[in-house]
């Protein structure tokens, strides 16, 4: 199955696109799919960051204890990554306890390398298994899982990200209702 990962670089601080209402493109579509997988987006996955996407981002931010502003920034992306085990791959090493370690452990087992219990804890057995995998793939066997090790595991991400483009905004006229009960758009 082809990867649905968006193409970002390995540097988290510069690689997460900041997305907000009014933007459109493949990065918004990916955000919508991540929010859908997290159970907070029920709208159409159309690549347009409208009010339903903003509401979903806000619901996700609220649920994760983040600043609730409806803007998908690096903290929101990182929380989505942790929630789904996809997206930008973190650098992992001994001592880390994180859902991404569980993904790593499962991937190692898929490649025939037994990391022991699949518990999300990067302990000595996982470190030794990572080193054995790295040696087998001709990588530096340092026990640290970075972009090269993720790539060798088949968890690749292309290197550049398209720039989000704002949606064209059509001016709307708002007119008062004749009966004085509110407004409507023309």
Walk me through this protein's architecture.
The chain has helices at residues 12-15, 26-37, 51-63, 74-84, 99-110, 124-136, 147-152, and strands at residues 23-24, 165-166, 174-176, 183-185. The protein is mainly α. The chain has two domains: 12-88, Orthogonal Bundle (Muramoyl-pentapeptide Carboxypeptidase, domain 1), CATH 1.10.101.10; 99-152, PGBD-like superfamily/PGBD (Muramoyl-pentapeptide Carboxypeptidase, domain 1). Strand 3 and strand 4 (183-185) form a beta hairpin. The protein is elongated. It starts with 11 loop residues before the first helix and ends with a strand.
Q: Short summary of the structure?
A:
The protein is mostly helical and 186 residues long.
- Contiguous runs where pLDDT drops below 50 for at least 5 residues: 1-14, 83-87, 157-172
CATH H-level superfamily of the largest domain: PGBD-like superfamily/PGBD
Supply the number of structural domains: 2
Along the chain, the helix and strand elements come as: HEHHHHHHEEE
What oligomeric state best describes the polypeptide chains here?
single chain
* CATH fold-level topology of the largest domain: Muramoyl-pentapeptide Carboxypeptidase, domain 1
Strand ordering within the main sheet: 1-2
Gyration radius, to the nearest Å?
21 Å
- Average predicted local confidence, pLDDT: 75
CATH class of the largest domain: Mainly Alpha
How many beta-strand elements?
4
Shape: elongated
Major β-sheet profile? 2 strands, antiparallel
Note the beta-strand portion. 5-15%
